[in-house]
């Protein structure tokens, strides 16, 4: 395979024939099958005649599962556009499609994750009731989703500069520091995850 392309020559030692698209497909499909099976089993168990019936946390997890399918679709459709391959064998047109998919993925992903966390919190409410900590963590989860969504959608002006900045020499615009955005929100998400684990912990009165 040629050692040059739209992005110039590859660094020495890079195997341009390397292709991890099969790993992407296998991993995504396996995880989605397991996740959807768990949700279906949950709904089946709770909706049985002898079961308690569906509650709001069940409906929210169904929405989260739908968003999870959306993230899987984003991953799978990236494969024909060069997902899993080295940059130097990806054309500029394919790169544009990849970054457009990435742009959509962020919104679908944060919605999926936030809905999952809200479902867990609503499950806690059904089992343990609510307290001040529950409301704080639920509010933080909703606020985090809002912050990520608004920041991401407004992060590039114009919006298409997110993908055109790398492929179109005539493109002009400005974007936030995406790696810093991912890093900071990853930390915030981790803190919220830990807080969710602590919500059911009894507090002294």
From TrEMBL:
GO terms for cellular component: membrane. It is found in: Membrane. Its main location: membrane. The chain crosses the membrane at residues 24-44, 56-83, 103-125, 132-154, 180-199. Keywords: Membrane, Transmembrane, Transmembrane helix. It is a multi-pass membrane protein. InterPro entries: Rhodopsin_dom_fungi, SAT4-like. Residues 41-202 form the Rhodopsin domain. Belongs to the SAT4 family. This is Rhodopsin domain-containing protein. It comes from Lasiosphaeris hirsuta.
